Amino acid sequence: MPSPPSPCVAIIGAGAIGGLFAAALHEAGVAVVVCARGALETLSVEYEGETRVLPVRVITDPASVTPVDWVIVATKAHDTPLIAPWLARLLGPSTPVVVAQNGIDHEARLRPLVGERPIVPALVYVAIERTAPGHIVHHTGHDVVVPADAAAQAFARLMAPGSLLSVRTEADFLTAAWRKLLTNVAANPITTLTLRRMDVMAEPGINALARALMAEAVATGQAAGARLSADDVEDVMTIYRGVNPSGGSSMLYDRLRGAPLEHAHLTGAVVETARRHGVGVPLNEAVLALLEALDRGLQDTRP
């Protein structure tokens, strides 16, 4: 009896996260096509002291693709509307869409573009940096958290043969999403606004600010139904102490590249949710105002 055909996965976005998923799936023996703006012939991944150079199939024109078995969306959250032409060509009647983006509103973001097809929100606990097109440097982390529904479990099985990423399911995904947001709501804006790497988080004043930003986010998440507590803040501080101090945040890397910032889906998500539930978040509101002003300034320098 012949073996079933190997699934084909399309990854939309060739940045750090998209590149890592491409490498992980290649290692797992899965056929991958990367949908991106610019052409690449190879993907170079620095991971735990080794540099792996992988062949990669990149397509730059949505008209050149056909429906696939899985789609992974690995663009920045604010770029989601721009991928509609890709999704229109890549999606079959029941193609699941994995959303490997920051934020807490993965399904709401993608649902208008994918109809009733399964959506798998994915929380990626990885510090990784794209240092050049086709070259990514892994700093720390390999966990990916998804819900416990059938589509998410199938995605975990798809990824299981590889070792670069470890996918696990979580029944209380709302709480998991807010816990992931906690890791971003302090480190991303602080590193971006100070133009510092993660070593800045060890400074006493910055440490206190990070705790206060996360405490506001905990209160907001609780109001939204997430089972958060002060212990979650301490867990994030432990994560910060364990990361490579020379690593940065995704938002810092965007600032260094002059790219649009993702503040609306991180700090902005806290502020918007807090306003809906009547929770006071003055520190996050102040940080959001700074990030918005910074992003407007960066826009003036973009070509």
Walk me through what this model shows:
The protein folds into 2 domains: 164 residues, 3-Layer(aba) Sandwich (Rossmann fold), CATH 3.40.50; 128 residues, Orthogonal Bundle (N-(1-d-carboxylethyl)-l-norvaline Dehydrogenase, domain 2). The chain has a 6-stranded parallel sheet with strand order 5-2-1-6-7-8, sandwiched between helices. The termini are far apart. α9 crosses α10. It has 303 residues and is of the alpha/beta class. The mean pLDDT is 94. 45% of the residues are buried. Helices cover 44% and strands 20% of the residues. Its EC number is 1.1.1.169. Keywords: NADP, Oxidoreductase, Pantothenate biosynthesis. GO terms for molecular function: 2-dehydropantoate 2-reductase activity.
Question: Which descriptors apply to this entry?
Answer:
303 residues; alpha/beta; Rossmann fold; N-(1-d-carboxylethyl)-l-norvaline Dehydrogenase, domain 2; 2 domains; 6-stranded parallel beta sheet; 5-stranded mixed beta sheet; 10 helices; 11 strands; pantothenate biosynthesis; 2-dehydropantoate 2-reductase activity; NADP; 2-dehydropantoate 2-reductase
